[in-house]
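Q: A reviewer asked whether we had any structural model of the full assembly, not just the individual parts. We don't, so I'm hoping you can provide one. Inputs are below.
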Amino acid sequence: MANYAVITGTGAFVPSRVVTNKDLEWEIDTTDEWIRTRTGIRQRYIASDEEPNSYLAVQASKKALEMADVRAADLDLIIVGTLTPDMPMPSVACLVQKELGAARAGAFDLSATCSGFLYGLSIADKFVRDRRRMKVLVIGSEVLSRRVNWDDRSTCVLFGDGAGAAVVTGTREPRGILSTHLHADGRLWEFLTIRALGTAHPVTPEILDKGWQYIEMSGRDVFKNAVRALESVTWEALKANAWTPEDVDLLVCHQANMRILDYLRERLGLPEEKVFINIHKYGNTSAASIPIALDEANRSGKLRPGMNVLMVSFGGGFTWGAVAMKW
Ligand code: UT7
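A: Here is a predicted structure for the entire assembly that you could use as a starting point for your response.
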């Protein structure tokens, strides 16, 4: 008998400090009007020095575990999608495991930028289909504010910090995750990168002077590729499930730019209420964006049992993907 992977709990957490576009006007050469009209962003949350990635991830996880009514001690696996870990070693997942007391759980981070949560969900799906009783905690968590160059107005206004989490376990009922679709194109990595802080470049004063420790993005190239990839993976997921756009009850897309979300909505002919939007509140939180959105949709009653949910993402690498679910 086939097993299916279901999400039984969601949680999200953001730091307490809100930074509005108006606040940024004081710090850098930008305007609230430019940011709002070009991106849809109105504010973002920024972590303090006492709030590393793992702290946000733990808070989001506690909420997801509580909703799922699962004890941390019963978790089998913790997966964290992130590009801004506390440190290169150990993984954020191991720090989360320690903090939660999830003694039985394996734990690892995965590097798929803004697609990290969907990549993580697809791995959880495979484990749970194999062993129905497995309990997997999938997290997307980022502290991007530490990796943005506050002197580069074309990127620093875009990103925010936060974490989202989901508890995944099995059922015999044909619902939950129906299909997963993962893609990448490493040839285009230079359009969105943090060049240093890995092993490719030593951390020298020259490298730091060049700002290679920060996010670099060729916005227009990313935009063009994002709309193309998001549309194509959406059709791929629809086709795999014999859905038409009308069958989608809620589209939860990575929140990178309001114009990208509008483009996708128009191409699919979806009404506004079927496309979840919270970019105005959080900015682009990379791997955290989809699980934060999912949790908001869940807690606000926008997600109801039986609904067809399509999650789609795109990010540096490039990576992109989709997960289709019956909620
Ligand atoms: O999460 C991964 C996926 N990421 C994305 O999907 C992001 C995709 N890209 C984008 O969302 C957009 O490309 C941006 C929002 C990043 C930029 O929007 P754009 O319409 O492509 O603007 P642009 O970079 O072409 O810049 C247009 C103008 C420039 O001025 P000139 O050269 O026309 O005089 C920029 O200097 O806007 C200027 N500009 C700003 N002005 C005020 C750039 N950033 C700012 C700013 N405030 N913060």
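A: Points you may want to mention in the reply: The longest strand covers residues 161-171. The mean pLDDT is 98.
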